[in-house]
Each structure stands twice: as structure tokens, then as C-alpha cells.
Amino acid sequence: MSVWNKVFHTQxxxxxxIDTGIHILNLCDxxxxxxxxxxxxxxxxxxxxxxxxxxxxxxxxxxxQDIGSKMKTRDECEDEEVxxxxxxxxxxxxxxxxxxxxxxxxxxxxxxxxVSMASECSWSDAVVELQAWCQLAAVCxxxxxxxxxxxxxxxxxxxxxxxxxxxxxxxxxLYGPTAVSEMLSGAGCLRALTLVRESGGDLHAxxxxxxxxLAAVRNAEKAxxxxxCVAAAGRYWSTCLPLTQTPEGRRQLLEPLEExxxxxxxxxxxxxxxxxxxxxxxTAPPLGSSKHEASEEEDLSLRAAMYSLLLHxxxxxxxxxxxxxxxxxxxxxxxxxxxxxxxxxxxxLVKAQLGKSVLADMQKFQDEEEQCCSSxxxxxxxxxxxxxxxxxxxxKSITCLLSEESRWEKLGLLLEFGEWLYGHDFPKAAARRxxxxxxDLLLLVGRERAEGSEVxxxxxxxxxxxxxxxxxxSWTSLKEVRRLDGLVRAHTLLAxxxxxxxxxxxxxxxxxxxxxxxxxxxxMAVGWEISNExxxxxxxxxxxxxxxxxxxxxxxxxKGIDPTPVEERPKPVVLDQELPSSxxxxxxxxxxxxxxxxxxxxxxxxxxxxxxxxxxxxSLFYLDLLERELCSLSLDHLxxxxxxxxxxxxxxxxxxxxxxxxxxxxxxxxCSQLGLETHSPYQEKLLSLSRIQEQEQMRCHRAIAxxxxxxxxxxxxxxxxxxxxxxxxxxxxREVSAQHIWLDxxxxxxxxxxxxxxxxxxxxxHCVAEELRDLTTMxxxxxxxxxxxCEEQNFAQALILxxxxxxxxxxxxxxxxxxxxxVRAVVGQRDQDAHTKAEQIIKRGYVALKLVLxxxxxx
Length: 859
Known about the structure:
The chain is mainly alpha-helical. It has 38 helices and no strands. The chain has helices at 2-10, 14-34, 46-62, 80-98, 111-120, 126-142, 146-157, 160-169, 177-199, 203-223, 226-240, 247-252, 254-273, 296-316, 320-333, 340-354, 359-362, 370-383, 387-399, 407-423, 428-443, 447-455, 481-497, 503-537, 546-554, 583-588, 593-601, 616-632, 640-653, 657-673, 686-689, 694-708, 738-752, 755-772, 775-791, 795-808, 812-828, 834-856. α20 runs parallel beside α23 and α29 runs antiparallel to α30. It starts with a helix and ends with a helix.
């Protein structure tokens, strides 16, 4: 009576409530006696009797009265079939009441026994039987009796046609088509979940569960119940997730997901139209939950996930028109929310790919932050199908950025825009102007002039003049590594854009190398400060006491290891901030381990770390480009600081040991070219540096597995490199693949005479390239194997490899090296007509190189 004790303390009229409960119980008893069906002409539908039974059990529970294990009512019914149905209905209602432990718990038979009782009944009403099976299935699911769940739901789903016929035979007041559809939907969900749980990897059971969940969504749509529709659709989505990992599985989900999305949209729209109209629902929600209202957030999140997968399928098929139709429908059916913005972004990019105007869609981003708007214009520029649209999008992405907070984004876009203009044959002056504008902002030259240029940026034309960045500024005051990294990139770009014989090219390359040195200076200065502070904060060793000295003297004759004297203990090392000052010193240099630790763990803006060099792959690209350009001007002795910085970024920021080994090999090669090979600390580690790293092999095997699943169908690795702008500029944002590292290592090993190491690297790279169908790597590996064959005087094998490489093709650098190697192999055979063959090879190479340059159509 604990419940009533609580009522007495909180309700002054508690006795009146008890009297009311007893009165209701008496009314239920009277109603059940009236529906006993003892008189043949006074038959009462079992549906009406069920309502009286449900109310009777609940009142009994509230009054803390027992019902008994026989589950009989005081209705004196003589019809055994009606009594059997009544006992089952009473037991089901008792089980449902027992799920709320706050009140009295009834004593009921076991679930398997109750299921058997229900199956033995001769039900006179298919709808009541359907409801009984659904309620019993929900109770069994709650009790985790999966075998009983399958039995109950199987019986329930078999009643679909009978329940529909029963609804059509007589007019219904207590039941309707909506209630039947809801019950069928809930039964389908419960059966599907149980099948998935019990399937144990059985594909047939898994497929049956998917079909049941799809039917549950259809029934929920018929019932116009958003809660049930979202629940069934969510179960379907969770169940189908393993299929989303392969292209074939995603294609199988195309039609079902489109049907589910249509059902979700239709149900939600109908629900909003009929909002306020009460609907009588006589079944429990799926899984027996008391919550029967689906949140709009859950609905929209589910729809967004499904739209994303369908978009993925269309993009895999390169069906851009179908992708736009899907996104049009998705945006139309999605209300204004956080889920609508990604759909808009995708539609803009798809339209750009199709060459359509995106201005109308971009106007919807006016209320967003300027960084968001600029980023969207930038993505459109990368996806646009024509030069004019790309130019407009680049300009808008830059002019969107006006605040000081977006300075770094603006600098990056200016440099990229200048690079793009140069690569697409716009006037060199226009391309240089964007880069010089970025240099001005990086150096903060004339703050008022810089701010004024930002305000009037929209009025700039490609023919206007801009001041050169270095004027009136001292680079020695620059300490921010992020700014110095940007200046290295900018001046390298300016050097590439200048004529090869012009003094400006040489000047900009020297400036870029000076900024690399400045990065080393400020970084080592910070390292010195940190190590010095650590040395000061390290606790001093305790002084040796007289007693300890005396004990030490006594123990001289005993065996054992004496404790280390204070004078002999290692003292904290302070990092030396002095940098090498000559090519010989740089040849001996290796970045100290203490400095590397600081670079990995520190966030100081005046030091090399992941926050000051945010785009490490891009920085490595421009350091490599700077190193090559300096070598082209015979300034090889200035490249050591550049390669050491690249090695540090690869080793400590990117954590790519294979890439770090490549730069160490290049350092050894440069020392060898300068006659300083004995100075390099990496000279003794050549064999270990030229090995293939296990992590790289694992990454390649993973890529091969992905490729075999078909997920790499649309990657650019399968296309011949024709170049886009400056050679290699398109690779600056890509992660350096393992097979490319192996090819570069092999080239260095060939230069150092490490033929066996080069052969292993090239063989592994070629094998991976064949598995991935990476034509670029295949061509390079075949060409390098031909070079190796020439080094070993195996010219016949070299010509065979060169023919295979010729069939694959490549960019202009590939054709240039192929022609030289071919001439070398032909001349090496010492045939009588070797010179004639060499002349023909040179002519063919000239034609191929000219064709590639014409096809590329830009610098």
C-alpha cells in the first residue's frame, strides 16, 4: 500500500479517489458481465470486450488488488472460446503493467506459455488478434526472448490481409486502417531487429530483415505516423550501414533509400497538415517505448545522411545531372535548418561541375560569415568547368574577405590565384601582381596602404599596378614562422614567373632562401630559450653529506658499484642556437634531437611546429621547387638549409619517416655533388635510409584493398599527367604517396650508385602501380628501370623497358628523360646505324614533347 500512503500524504481527498477507483472497477465488472455472450442474440464484439478488460486490469493495479494466476474475470462467461481470448488479453495487459515497476506487479505465466495460449485461441476478430500479437511481441522484445518475438511477429504479419478484410466487412469505431498499419509497422520492426540479431552472418536472414524494415516504412506511411516512419527508417539505415562500404552495396540501396525518403517527406507533410486532429492509436510504439513523437531533428538528420549516400552513388556514376535533381528535391523538401546548408553547398559544386550559374544559390550565403562565403567561392573555382567561371569565383573568394581575422585565408587565396593566373596563360604581370599583393600583406608594408588596398580590392583590374613587396621593409624583424613560410612560397612563385635569364628570378630565389634561413634562426632561438628555461628549472642534486662520504670510505674495499659522483652526473644540455655558416658546416649538420622534440611539442608562433606551418605538404612542395630552381642557376651550395628544413617538416610535423629518409638521401647526394660526402652524418646510414618502411607498405596494401573494392574509380591517378599550369603545381595539396617516395628514393640511389637498393624500390613501386592502375607511377618506374639497365650496361633490356614506358606516356619531363635514355641505350649498343637511330629517336621525342605542350595549352 505504499502507493496509497503517498497519495494520502499528498492528496487531502485520497479516500475519495479510492472510492472512485472502486466504482470504476464495479463498472468494468458490470460491462464484462454484459458482454458474456451467454445469450445467442446478444453477442458483443471482442474488440469492445478488450477495452473493458484493459481498463479492468489497470484499475486493479491502481487499487493494489490481485488478479490471480488463472487470469479470470468475474463475468461468468460460458463461451470457452471467449474465455480463452479474455484470459490472453488479461495476461497481455498484466505484462504491460508489469513493465512499470513503480506499482504492483502481477503474477503471470512465462512468456512461452502465454504465446502458446494465444496461438491456441480461436480469434473472432483479426484486428484484435493482431493487436494482441503486437503487444505480446513488444513484451517479449523487452524481456529479450527473441524466439518468442519471432513467433509473435510471424503470427502478426500473417494477419495483414485478414485484418484489412475485417476492417472492410463492418464499420469500425474502436479500430481503423491507421491503427492496423501502425501495428504492422511495429511488428515488422521488431521482427527485423530480431532477425539481424539472430542472423549470425546469414545473408538470407539479413536480406529478409531489410525487406521487413522497408515494409514497415510503407505501413508507417499508410498510417501517416511520423514517429513510426522515422523509427522504421532509422532501423533500416542502421541495418544497411555495412552495405554502404562497397559500390555494389551502395547501388543496391539506391531505390530503397529513395522510397524511404519519399515516405519520410510525405508523412511529415501529411502530419503537419493534419496537426491537431487526434488519432486513436491502440498499439504500443516500436520497441515498447512510451515516446510516440519523432523529433524533427532526428528526422532531418536521418534524411541528410540518406541524401549524402545517394549523392555519393550519383557521383560514383559521374551522373552530375542526376546528382543535381537529387539535391534540388532534397533542398525543396528540407526546411531551413543546419542540415540544409550542406545540401546547398553540394548543389553549388554540382552546378559548377556542369558549367551552370551559381549566383542565385550563392546569394543564400549572404547571411553567413565571410570565411564561409569565401570558402564556398573557392570550392566553386576548383570545380568550375570553364576558365571564365573560375576567374570570377577566384576574384569573389578574395573580395569576400575584408576583416583582419581572415587575413591568412586571404593571403593563401592571393598566392593560389596568382599561381592559377600564371598557369592558365594570363599575362605574367597580372599573376605577379596577386603574389606581390600577398607579399605586401605578409610584410605589413605601409599599413595604411595595405588597408586601403583591401578596401579598393574590388576595383582592381588585371592591368593595374601594385608595389613590389620588399620595398621599405627589413626582413630581420620578421619572427613569425607562418609569415616566413608564406614569403618563401611567394618569392618562389615570383621567381618561377620571371624569365629564366632575368635578374629578378635570381633575386627572388635568393630572397626565398634567406627566409628559409630566417625560419631556422628564429626557431633555434626559441629552442634555446626553452632548453635554457628547462635547465634552470631542473632541481639541483642534493649535496653529499659527511656521513655519506664516511660510509663511502668504509665501503671502498667491498664489491659493488659506487654511486655516480655529483661532478660526474650529466648536466642539462642547453640547445645551441648557432647555425652553420658555410656549406661545409651545413654538410655536417643534423637537426638536434632536443630541437626536434621542441618542434613536435611547442606551439610558439616563432618556432617550427604544426601551428606555424599548417600546410606541411604544400610547404614541402615549394621547398622542393625552390631547391630545384636554385640548382638550375648553379646555386647548389645554398640548398642545404632548404633540404634540412624539409627533412625536419617531414620527420617531426608530418611524422613520415619514409619521406624523411628521402630528404636525408638527397642531403647525402648534394654533399657528394659538392665533394663533401665524408662530412654528412647520414653517409653511414645509406642502406637503412634506402629501405622500404613497413608503414609505407601497409599504407599501400590498404590502398590496393580499397582499389579492388572499386572505391578509387574516379581518382586522378588513373589519368595521364598532362600538367596544369606550372609543372607539378597541382600536386602541392596532395599527400605524397608511398610509391612516389620509392621512385624518388630510387632516383637518388641511382645517382649514388646503390643499384640493388634502387632495383628493390623500383620493383615494389611498379608492383603497387600495376595493382592501383596508377599510370603515372608505372611510366616513371619503367623509365627508371631502363636507366638502371643502362647503368648496368644491359642496353637491350633498357630498350624493352623504354618501349613499355613509351606505351604508357607521361608529362613533358617524362618525354624529355625518355628521349635521353633511349638515345643512351641505342648508342650504348654500338650498332653501325646507332647514330641514325639516335637521330630518329630525338625527332620522335621532339614531336611527342611538342604534342604534350600543345595539349596542355598553358605554361
